[in-house]
Amino acid sequence: MESRPEKYSLEEVSKHNTPNDCWLVIWGRVYDVSAWVPHHPGGNLIFVRAGKDSSQLFESYHPLYVRKLLGRYCIGEVNEVANDSLQQSTVEYCESGTEPFYLTLKERVEAYFEKHKVNPRVHPNMLPKSILVIAGYMLFFYITFFGLQSFSLSVLSALAMGYFAAQIGLSIQHDANHGAYSNVNWFGYLMSTSLDFLGASSFMWRQQHVVGHHSFTNVDNYDPDIRVKDPDVRRVTSKQPIQKYHSFQHVYLGALYGLLALKGVLLDDFAAYISGSIGPVKIPKMTNLETGVFIGGKILYIMYMFVLPSLFSHHSIFQCAVLYVASQFVCGWTLALLFQVAHVVPEVDFPVVDSSHGRPKVHQGWAAMQVRTTTNFSTNSMLWTHLSGGLNYQIEHHLFPSVCHLHYPSIHPIVKAVCEEFNVPYYSYPSFWAALKAHFLHLKKVGSEHFELRLSG
Asked: Considering its fold, how many domains does the chain have in total?
């Protein structure tokens, strides 16, 4: 007789949350992948959600053949307990692991890469592009604080420095922290820490973006990118609480988006470290390497960005502060606006979680939900692909986050065709400016809904 599979609660699984003791929940089954961690081709991404449900991350990051390898690591199943303290850390999607739309799409995209003998995680143009971007950032940093006597010209240089900082975030660390940069794990990890070089934490970014945003895109109370606290300065869906000031959010957010980079460097990382969470995302314990990168990155940034200019720049400390803030506003605006036009526009969905039967559920497939919660723009422009780090193909990115962004134009026709075949709505704006206009129109509408309803009542 076959023995019954071992049953584990989510609470028991959560205790195995380190690289040396790594359990994952995938489609209701429990896997002990501790022995595989050192050999994982995706490096540390294997334990980015250790001890938790990793179904969506596993499915979106792995080709179909990897499913066949899971069996050797299976140790049991999740025991569904109604009062399990960790039920709210995950969402169950329809057809999880068997979604016909996603299976068909993955088969065709994988067949494309196999036919053309292309490694989807690597593109030969990424290294020269990275060198150009990092060199540009360092050059304009030097010019801003040390190279020009004219303060006015230094301001212009600071704006360029901020733009290149955003490019590091968009075109280098974004791919690297998704495992979409290199087949050499140490090199991919090194490039992921380019974000730490900019003063922000790559560890915290992975928790917020990879774990939170990609698993639960636009799902209120789960996706930290659309709300992290109440009251929030933004309201992006009619299900969120409304404040009187939200009726002006389409005006003031245009300015506040510029604070994104400053807020991340000077506040958010430390707040997450102290509180142990980023909104609904609980932060796991850092490894020694992650702790060293977190602390070392902050120290390095303080030294070259604040200490060196205060000691050696011919500009006054006040002028250096102005130059720094100017650069950070450009960086913040660039990052915020390019990300917001993908998910906070009128055409996208904001899925609602149904918790009426115990474990939270979303009544649609995860992959189809990625398309419905996301939009593209300027998909016929290679220039925008480079300038946005591939965010103009945000739908392709959410479906295949481990694919280098320079491959998105190639798989775009495949994705669009399969969406049409399965009647999954696929929306793309003709230009960035059209997408940007739609974003602020959405903010205006959602921010004013309460008052419109009150008047009509």
From this structure: 2
